[in-house]
Sequence to fold (171 residues):
Amino acid sequence: MSQDDMHGYTVAYEREELQFPVYVVAFTGACLATVGLALDNVFLIALALLALGFAYYNYPLLETGKQRIGCGQYGVFAEGLGIISWRSIKAIELKQLDVRGSIDHELLIMLEDPLERALLVDWRRRPFYRFLMRLPWSLKGSVIRIPLDAFDRPPEEIAQSFTRMMGFYKR
Fold:
């Protein structure tokens, strides 16, 4: 089963705000690389590599419309992670973080089992060229953290849908 076969509630990255900074940084990196090579300036080439590395890491933000996280009858899925079975999920919680006056939202998925046993399908093996790209989740102990502000749906709607589907399928 691949990620494209998943049905149910799915969420993609937002289409408007996130693309612009990635394009600007990529363009800036290309300009710095061109000027650095023309002037044979190692400092400019190093800055260009940093900018292009940042753009490469954030390239998935440009792939709008592709499902990144979601849930269905089998459990919760996330790109680059796999499908976590409903029976292995202890709780799903929406957490608000105040970061420098701005509120960020994270979806916390607490696991009852270790990740290896919780996964029905393991998508952690990625192609080499995608190894250094952004993932929509992080793992801290037995808690999977998913920052929700980059997605195309409101954080409250995402958390409510995940919780509602967990209550329905976990019976």
